[in-house]
Design brief:
The complex is a heterodimer. Chain A is an alpha/beta fold. Chain A contains 15 helices and four strands. Helices cover 67% and strands 6% of the residues of chain A. In chain A, strand 1, helix 3 and strand 2 form a beta-alpha-beta unit. The two termini of chain A are 20 Å apart. In chain A, 36% of the residues are buried. In chain B, helix 3 packs across helix 4. Chain B has eight helices and ten strands. By secondary structure, chain B is α/β, with parallel strands linked by helices. Classes of the chains: A alpha/beta, B alpha/beta. Chain B: Pfam families: ABC_tran.
């Protein structure tokens, strides 16, 4: 009955606090929409490549949607020309020799140029094979070898392939998860879903308990026969329900507006977020005991919340150095985001994500016990 | 039941600092005991120890024949904290209902008790206002109403008359006397000497020690003065001389 009273109170307070409600429910939608558009257009990036004295057949081979080719005749060095014309790179042909200079201030643009050159190499190779006039073939071959050297200088490994005759190959791509139009947004979504719930529940519940401590209501509450566990359970259930509503809203929004596919079960998504909320809540309540004001609570965000993003899968954990991979395992969001990605993108079932969920549960349990202990400061029984 | 509160040789403190030295006191059913003393004297610490929020460093505390600390017994104590611990987002009625639920009052009983408790402190008309619109005095009265809500056999009121106007103060005292007559025991802290004069028994605390104890009449007679205030000043001087 007391837990019910706690939940009722938390609900009444939250529903009256319109700004917090808006922040909790509309804020994430705004952020997600922004992220959606930010990462939607991953096919539209272009790089400008300056070419000087380059054989017309190579230029034709280089042409693609991502590359803007501009011919130049100026005699100044590649460096000055790239700077002056704000280009991503410059390709200069001098007889059989090709020299590529990259601005390299934006790695993704450098990658576009390198990839285009590789593609051009393949195209030329196929043209060589198809060529009927031997002299033309020889010229193309020469060009191709020169190109291999240039790309080699630009840092591409394994570009030299035996220039034997090959049949034209058509490539058909199959996707295990997602489709051809899958964007980075779909990779980000499960991670964001976990993080948003974690962040909001951490902050709101932490500050709520902090306010209870500073206004004295926590002490007053403990002057009733309420159990410490009942207070924490009330918080858990009260804010947990808000977290579930928040998750539902975000999930329905992404399905409805962005047409994102959730392959696994929606219930599992809710369960994962409920566990994330439990960890965030117990952690928020615990951390709030080290803060004397709301301002100090905010100061914990860079320490507690931000590092978790790094290990949530935005940067693939498998590519991290060994010791960092170990560090990743102490962050709850690592498990949450991992299971969320598995369920949403790969349709993982409870048995697959079970171990991660158990670990999340363990986190919540540890912080729960710690909370019980810190509340002893106010009432020793 | 001879005593409702029985504190014997209580020493209490936080960490290594000692706040209370060797305090002993008994309160009989239906009695009003006033703890008086300057702020920082240890009144609130004594109240915390009696409620069992703190475990005694040495000595014993018994309330209603139960050794404290005891969580379940808190249901029988109506407590009013020194600072108004209330929820600003809620209305007066919601605050009463919430703390009543926490105290263990059933939902059906709350319906009758909330108006009754509010009537004592003259807040019936303001129950549905949000607490943001309450004045300091109204908040103090609501805190008192919360303490009265469960109709407990023991009331512990920490500075109940701070910020309450004289007319309402008299009204509250009349109610406290009525309750004492019904057998309810009341312990209150104050630094207002007029409050002390209303009490059956007075305990003066200064620098963590009890410096004088007895009925207001006996104390004024003992110190050959004509007011409790003068008793307090004299007892304080005696303490410093020791």
């Amino acid at each position: 009955m007391r837990v019910k009273g706690m939940i009722h109170r938390i609900f009444t307070e939250m529903l009256r606090d319109k700004r917090t409600l808006a922040l909790m429910f509309l804020g994430p939608l705004l952020i997600l929409t922004l992220v959606y558009f930010l990462f939607q257009g991953n096919g539209t990036q272009t790089a400008t490549l300056l070419v000087k004295n380059v054989d017309q057949s190579l230029i034709t081979a280089l042409k693609n949607d991502h590359l803007e080719i501009k011919a130049t005749r100026a005699s100044s060095t590649a460096k000055t020309q790239i700077r002056r014309r704000d280009a991503a790179g410059m390709l200069v042909q001098n007889g059989d020799k090709l020299t590529l200079t990259l601005a390299n201030s934006d790695q993704s643009q450098s990658t576009i140029i390198k990839q285009s050159l590789q593609q051009a190499q393949v195209k030329l190779k196929m043209q060589t094979a198809a060529a009927t006039i031997k002299t033309q073939a020889a010229a193309l071959k020469q060009l191709q070898i020169a190109l291999a050297k240039a790309t080699g200088q630009a840092g591409i490994k394994g570009a030299s392939q035996p220039a034997t005759t090959e049949k034209a190959v058509t490539i058909k791509t199959h996707y295990l998860y997602g489709g051809a139009d899958a964007t980075y947004f779909e990779t980000l979504l499960p991670i964001l879903l976990g993080f948003i719930v974690f962040f909001f529940v951490f902050l709101i519940s932490g500050i709520a308990l902090l306010r209870e401590r500073t206004t004295g209501t926590l002490y007053r509450l403990l002057a009733t026969p309420v159990r410490r566990g009942e207070i924490i359970a009330g918080y858990l259930a009260g804010y947990g329900l808000f977290a579930v509503v928040q998750t539902l809203l975000i999930v329905l929004y992404t399905i409805g507006v962005f047409k994102v596919q959730i392959i696994g079960s929606l219930w599992l998504v809710l369960l994962i977020n409920l566990l994330m909320a439990a960890v965030a809540l117990t952690m928020g309540l615990f951390i709030s005991t080290f803060a004397d004001s709301e301002f100090q609570m905010i100061q914990f965000i860079p320490i507690v919340a931000l590092p978790q993003i790094f290990f949530s899968g935005i940067i693939p954990v498998a590519t991290m150095p060994g010791w960092l991979q170990v560090v990743a395992h102490i962050f709850p969001l690592y498990y949450g985001a991992q299971s969320m990605t598995a369920v949403i993108e790969k349709g993982a079932t409870l048995t697959t994500v079970g171990p991660s969920l158990l670990i999340l549960f363990g986190f919540a349990l540890v912080f729960l016990v710690l909370n019980g202990q810190t509340m002893k400061r106010y009432r020793q029984v | 039941m001879a005593t409702v509160i029985n504190v014997s040789h209580l020493t209490q403190g936080y960490g290594k600092t000692i706040v209370l030295h060797d305090i002993s006191l008994q309160v009989a059913p239906g009695q009003i005991l006033a703890l008086i003393g300057p702020s920082g004297a240890g009144k609130t610490t004594l109240v915390s120890a009696i409620m069992g929020m703190l475990r005694p460093k040495s000595g014993t505390v018994e309330v209603l024949d139960t050794p404290m600390p005891d969580r379940a017994l808190l249901a029988k104590i109506g407590y009013m904290a020194q600072t108004d611990a209330l929820y600003d987002e809620l209305t007066g009625r919601e605050n009463l209902a919430f703390f009543g639920t926490m105290q263990g009052v059933l939902k059906i009983e709350l319906k009758q008790r909330i108006p009754r408790a509010a009537a004592v402190v003259d807040l019936q008309g303001d129950l549905d206002k949000p607490l943001k619109d309450y004045s300091g005095g109204m908040r103090r009265r609501l805190s008192l109403a919360i303490a009265l809500l469960a109709d407990p056999p023991l009331l512990i009121l920490d500075e109940p008359t701070v910020g309450i106007d004289p007319e309402l103060r008299q009204q509250i005292w009349a109610e406290l006397h009525r309750m004492a007559k019904r057998g309810i025991t009341i312990l209150l802290t104050t630094h207002v000497m007029e409050d002390a004069e209303e009490a059956d028994q007075v305990m003066m605390i200064r620098q963590g020690a009890a410096i004088a104890q007895g009925t207001p009449a006996a104390l004024t007679a003992q110190y050959h003065v004509d007011s409790i205030e003068q008793v307090f000043l004299q007892a304080g001087r005696d303490q410093d001389a020791r």
